[in-house]
Amino acid sequence: MIEEGYEKHKGGAFRLPGLTQWIVVFNSPKLVEELRKAPDDLMSFTMATEEVTRLLCNFNIHWELISQNEYHLPIIRNRLTQNLDVMFPELHDEIVASFQDNIPLSYEWKNYPVTETFINIIGRTSNRAFVGLPLCRNQEFLEIGVQFAYDVMTTATILYILPPWLRPIVASMLTAIPNRIKHAEKVLTPVIEDYREQKEHETEVRQSKVFLSWILDEAKVEEQSTGRLANRILVINFSSIHTTTNTFNQALLHLAATPQYLRPLRDEIEQVTKSEGWTKAALDKMRHLDSFCRETQRLHPLTCLTSPRKALQDHTFGNNTFIPKGSTVWLPSLSTMKDEEFYPNAKEFDPFRFSRVDIDQSRRRRDMVSTSPEFLPFGHGKHVCPGRFFASNEVKLIMAHLIMTYDVKMEIEGVCPADFCIGVSRISNPKAKVMFRKRAM
Questions:
Q1: What pLDDT was estimated at residue 26?
Q2: Which of 36, 174, 195, 355 could covalently link to 291 via disulfide, CB atoms 3.0 to 4.6 Å apart?
Q3: Is 385 annotated as contributing to ligand binding?
Q4: Which of this chain's residues are annotated to bind heme (predicted)?
């Protein structure tokens, strides 16, 4: 339906039926840029996502408090991003250790379930930055995060199709999420107390490389309770790990289906790490690897629609597209990124599409984290994903280690399993497996 509307209404806009109202899809780079520049008191991202937030608040009162005070977002956007080079050695260390535990080296080919294996590796790596050692390797804690995300998505789907008056009643009978939160608080409490004690007893400001210590620094008095902090860490896990895992999984599946690209990727990684070592500076120079991951994002965005904005007043855009107050506008991420007008041979996987561009073109517009009206995996505009720099570095570092350490292939040569679609969401096939062995050459 989205694809049909996109083809019929190029350069304009079209409507789609939602569960509770019609939604509007902007179908033009010019309209996308107008929407990006529109002030929040006209086209609001916060109000567009409010219904989802309200659903989550039905079964987690802390979520409402978190949504009202998102002080963690500037920390992600600024402090986490600015400290990526400092955190890099620890992230690399965790990746090496987690691969040893999850995919032991062997010269024999062995099949591994992609999602199950890499949600653990990415969960450990992410939490090395979020909560540090030893909790990032605690399987009980990692499992809470995985199950919490599953419970949230399942419960939110159930509540979404119910009338608003019935949602709190049904939510009160669904106990999985409150139980997960209590479990997470129990596991996180000793770690939070330890960070708090260290902070109180140090005379100088603690320069920790762990995200938890930063939110302790910034949290106001009412946000300092162990329960509030544990909940925020759980929400950050939910928001980051599953999206990063999906991006990585899609890249891995393409690599396993087209192993001929292992050699040029290895050559680049070997050349760069030989002169730079395993550093962020080295990762930034891996242009083919960055292009490989960006091309994967282009073909496999997490959703077919992105970057919602709710109209807080009637407004007419430049091409006379009228948006009445209360309407929600979305951007067609998948259709845009498969459009031949913007990408030649757009439906084909071309891993070095973005590393072959003219050297005079702006490099920043072609790397994994850059956004534009034609490239929307992270959204576009002032509400673009704040954690995209951390996520892209994590995906590329894990890919680089894998490429240098293992050979990979699909069990059925060259066959990349189809995405699994639920509504407008698209995820890597949850049943997909990839064969690994120790690198032979």
A1: 93
A2: 355
A3: yes
A4: 385
Backbone angles phi and psi of 375, in degrees to 5: -140, 110
As given in the structure block, the two tokens for residue 247 are 């991006």
> Residue 439 and residue 422: Cα distance in Å, rounded?
36
Residues 6+ apart with CB under 8 A from 247: 293, 296, 297, 300, 302, 377, 391, 395
Measured between alpha carbons, how far is 2 from 194 in angstroms, rounded to an integer? 50
Tell the residue number behind the tokens 């996180």, with chain if given.
Answer: 188
Q: What is the pLDDT of residue 359?
A: 47
pLDDT at 85: 94
Token readout for 171 is 């939510």
Phi/psi of residue 244, each to 5°?
-65, -40
Q: What is the pLDDT of residue 60?
A: 58
Whole-number Å distance between alpha carbons of 284 and 266: 15
Q: What residue ranges define each of the domains in the chain, with the CATH number in brackets?
A: 1-438 (1.10.630.10)
Q: How far apart are CA 268 and CA 288, in angstroms?
A: 7
Q: How many residues does the chain have?
A: 441
Instruction: Give me 224's structure tokens.
Output: 């300092």
Give the Cα separation of 89 and 95 in Å (integer).
10
pTM: 0.92
In the block, residue with structure tokens 């991951």: 293
Q: How many whole angstroms separate alpha carbon 98 and alpha carbon 248?
A: 15
CA-to-CA distance for 377 and 352, rounded, in angstroms? Answer: 18
- The alpha carbon dihedral of 54, 56, 57, 58 has a sign of positive
* Secondary structure of residue 26 in the 3-state scheme: strand
- Residue 358 pLDDT more than 60? no
pLDDT for 204: 47
Unique residue bearing structure tokens 């419960």:
155
Measured between alpha carbons, how far is 42 from 44 in angstroms, rounded to an integer? 6
Query: What pLDDT was estimated at residue 59?
Result: 56
DSSP state of 372: B
The span from the CA of 44 to the CA of 310, in Å, is 5
Pick the closest to residue 253 from 220, 300, 285, 288 (CA basis): 300
* Residues 226 and 182 sit within 8 Å (Cβ to Cβ): no
For residue 25, list its beta bridge partners: 14, 330
DSSP string of 129-185, one letter each residue: HHT-TTGGG-HHHHHHHHHHHHHHHHHHHHHHTS-GGGHHHHHHH--HHHHHHHHHH
More confident residue, 275 or 164: 275
pLDDT of residue 65: 65
Cβ atoms of 309 and 332 within 8 Å: the answer is no
What's the pLDDT at 422?
79
